[in-house]
Amino acid sequence: MADQPQTRVAVYIDFDNIVISRYDQLHGRGSFHSDKVRNLPVDGRESKVRTRFREATVDLGAVIDYASSYGSIVLSRAYADWSVPAHAAYREQLLARAVDLVQMFPTTRALKNGADIRLAVDVVEDLFRLDDITHVVIVAGDSDYIALAQRAKRLGKFVVGIGVAGSTSKSLAAACDEFADYDALPGIEPVTVTGEDSAADDNAEPAKAEAKQTATAGQAKKSQKKRRSTSARSGSSQQQGSNERDPADDASGLLERALRILHQKTDDEWLHANVVKEQMKRMDPVFNEKSLGHRSFSEFVAARDALAEVREDGQARLLRLRD
User: Fold this and answer.
1) CB of 162 closer than 8 Å to CB of 139
2) DSSP-derived secondary structure letter, 268
3) pTM exceeding the 0.90 threshold for the entire prediction
């Protein structure tokens, strides 16, 4: 039987879109600009805006992990003005995941930097230059990307969109083969939102726009705390400071995240062990069970029986996440 062709994924992140959308989702439409978050220094005294910014931190590692479930990531780019202090807070997180930072300088007084046009041009150029790309992941919710998604599909690519609830164009979601809500990604704790404001795009679904979402400070803090905990457990051994954590704990978090992603993407209750290991390697190429003192992947999983359940089906070894 012929081997199935390898899937190769390209990820493109409209950084401003996803970060501003998340901030406005938690704190009300227009809050990112009214709070002047863009000019918030990375280092400085504690303030209300700094606290709100920290609460709205986007876990881009979870986004990259989810994108890797479609195949091997061959390129990933994030578009923003990286000289902006607020954006600089994310540089370490992105570089640790081998994301290329594309510098976009503002071209107008309104601070528009043309990231959507540059991103679209790069996608089309890459698809013609690298014909082995099978999947395109667009991390944004702006309706400006509808034509890009349609063109990528016409070129035979599988298009995945990822956006923040309340700021995603319904038409963009319809133009993709699949669209994932950031809050629904494994490892992200969904926020409970109430109130009058919304970060909805002008072309977003009216029902979403009328939802007018904002989060209470207490809920946001709880959500952020859990996201930080999950991120610390995930396969982020490449990040600076990982030497301060137990590699075995990092590996356990990586296993949990991989199982959650695969369970979410399929209806299968049990997953083949080799599929789980392949997903873990996509998320963290450094992972090696032997370096943790285990002779095999099966032994590695068996040592984490409180996290994963194992059963044998003939020659196959199957896993599932324990409740």
Assistant:
1) yes
2) -
3) no
